[in-house]
Amino acid sequence: MNRKAVARELVKVAKLLSAGTWSMPNNKADSQKLLKLIKQMEKGEWPDDKTPGSALYNVLGDDQLFDSFDREAQPYLRACADMVKRRIKQFAQQDVDEYSDPKDKEQLDWLAEQL
After folding, report:
1. Angle formed by the axes of helices 102-114 and 77-93, to 10°?
2. Helix 28-43 vs helix 77-93: angle between axes, to the nearest 10 degrees?
3. What is the pTM for the complete model shown?
4. Is the Cα dihedral 7, 25, 84, 61 positive or negative?
5. Contact of 107 with 24, CB cutoff 8 Å
6. Residue 45: C-alpha distances to residues 3, 77, 92 (Å)
7. What is the domain partition of the chain in residue ranges?
8. Is the model more confident about 73 or about 103?
9. Tell me: the pLDDT tens digits for 46-82?
10. What is the mean pLDDT of the chain?
């Protein structure tokens, strides 16, 4: 990998880190897990020992999303589901260059179509 390619990759990583996003679904299994969690939230079904943030942490970890949970809807699962869907759609509208892994963009586009 040449210096320019390395620099481009570093810029992508820096954008993700500055945005406060630490995990995204980048494979079908994670995408399906996220859809399942959204559907559970919409139905108001949730394990007592989990919060939406703790369940989503490794599937869709994003500061903006989690801040919304804290401010608005932690006890209200349906509202959390709406916030997750809205954030996925925002991510899907971003340019592929903003992702460190093109698979992230591919999976987010797929998820946005499912919502």
Report:
1. 130
2. 140
3. 0.57
4. negative
5. yes
6. 49, 8, 26
7. 3-114
8. 103
9. 666 667 777 888 888 888 887 777 665 555 667 778 8
10. 75
